[in-house]
Amino acid sequence: MGLLLLLTSTLLSSYFHPGIMVDAQRIFTIRDITLSIEPSTDVVRGTNVTVRCKAIVSSFGQEVLSREYTIYKGNNKVYTKNSSTSEDLLYPLPDARVSNTGKYHCRINIKGEEMNSRVEKLTVTGLSKPVLHLDKDVFSEGEEIMATCTAPGETGSIFFYLHEGNNVLREGLVNTNHFETKFRFSRVGIHGIHCKYTVITMPDSFMSNESNILSVSVEELSIKPVLEIFPQTKIYEGDPLNILCTIRNLARPDNIHLYLSQGIKLLSSGNTKVNHSIVALASEPGDFECRLEMGNVAKVAAKTVLVTELFSVPTLTMSPAEVFQKERMTLTCKSEIASERLNRGELIYTLEPDSPLTPLAPGVFSGKALLYDFNYTCVAKAKGIVKRSETLTVCPKISVSTPKISVEGKAVLGQPFKIRCQSDVGSLPINYTLLKGYDQLGTISVRLPQPALFTVTITKPEEIKEYMCEAKNNHKNAPLSQRLNATVIEPLMGLTLTVTPHLPEISEGDHLYLICGTKGTPPVTFKWYRVGKEQPLHTTTSEKNNTDYQVPNLSKAHSGTYYCEAVNHANNIVRSEEVTIEVRLALWKKAVIGGVCLLVVSVLVVGSVLYFRSKRGKREAAAELSVKPLRDL
């Protein structure tokens, strides 16, 4: 702040006292800068437009500061000028075009200090109509055409399009107002073409109207390919075909190529003539083509040949439709005779590859099916013509093996359980039938490699051995499994709790036995409980139907109510009735108590006797004393 006051006072002294020269840096400030577009921001094509940049700068002294102006269109510099005056900068756009459309702003720079104006957008509308020009209007087939499309008076980046109707022939981006291109027409006749263009002003673009339409006449060349095929009619398989591809109206043999093809297969090629011979086959396409190429011109002559079959493609069938390994089967190969030129005896049938099947008659082969899948193809031959049938894959089925029967999980008496039936080998589908004795209970068809599961319930353990299963897969044999051999679990029932010694005889110091017994299939898990406690007193698993829990050296604390529970693999829990145990005193304790009681009674009796005797003596003594005075009297 002090430095600023010092400089200010020095400059003022210099101003009011010219004789004093002060060499100090000029002080200035850029107050504002604005950009305006004249006559308007929206103008039509051809208007003279001026972009004005006006800056307001404050400074000490009368000398005007040197300033640099820069005008931008978008992010691109379009004009730069240095000025030593305070006059506005003018950027003229005479005869404005659509390409001048864009966003403009200006920047001022004075001794490194800069300021930018706000952005103003100029929009110029209106495009000139494009003009199309051709070097001539009549062309020969394949001749190159030169076209020029012009956008009169337009500037900037222009994208041109050359059209025939709605089809784009050529297109291209240039930075001039005209576009030149070359092209050819592939078709003869009259063609109407026009052009148009787009002026690109990122991010916008402006499309022009269409130009004038010019008619172009493309005349066909007299040169033509000629295709000849001999013979022309009644062509049978095996007949030789002579094919000739030549040129008509050949003026000069320069730059000419001929191509002879059948379908997509190229048979031969040459310059002015192609001759080719083949054997006619009904299986191959009868479409022939003679193609002439001369520079950019291509002409085609085509013919279709109808070839009559001598015999049809053979068909190969098998009987029976399904065959098992090592069973006899028959393959039959047959073709239809389609021409009077062929006798059936001339047709020879064979099988590929070689197989152990024996021929029984023409086209009939018999033998045993192999142990594995095998592919057969029938080959029919006559007069040099060979035809093959579609491949027949014989998949011999495997006869089903003896099924195995078992219990899925466990078999519990009186509860539903599953019987599993499955063969180790056998072609699917397999039908499994469950039998009890020889009565069929049900059949399950299995189409995946998985067992058949049957649900049954038995009421007696010996019933389990009555079950068998049968397996069948269309083979004549239907093997039967062995009888089902499995353990049957009998649920527990009738659980009892026996106490030893007998309840009235249980005394302190005795050895107590709590015996649990039940009916059912072991192993059995027994648990003993005392009423009032959730946890069991003892748990054990036994391979027998009964076991015990012992309590040695009983005391009065063991008195209470007891019961037991049991469970086996049938998962049904049974519970005994509750038994109340009262532990009595030991015999010696009873004897001691009795002796003590007798002693107490004896003492009481003796004391009473002595007491009464003492009382009696006192009375007698008193009586004697009272009698003695009387005696003395």
TrEMBL record:
Residues 1-21 form the signal peptide. GO terms for biological process: cell surface receptor signaling pathway; cell-cell adhesion via plasma-membrane adhesion molecules; immune response. It comes from the Eukaryota. GO terms for molecular function: transmembrane signaling receptor activity. Keywords: Disulfide bond, Glycoprotein, Membrane, Signal, Transmembrane, Transmembrane helix. PROSITE patterns: IG_LIKE. Residues 491-580 form the Ig-like domain. PANTHER family: IMMUNOGLOBULIN FC RECEPTOR (PTHR11481), PLATELET ENDOTHELIAL CELL ADHESION MOLECULE-LIKE ISOFORM X1 (PTHR11481:SF125). This is Platelet endothelial cell adhesion molecule isoform X6. It comes from Lates calcarifer.
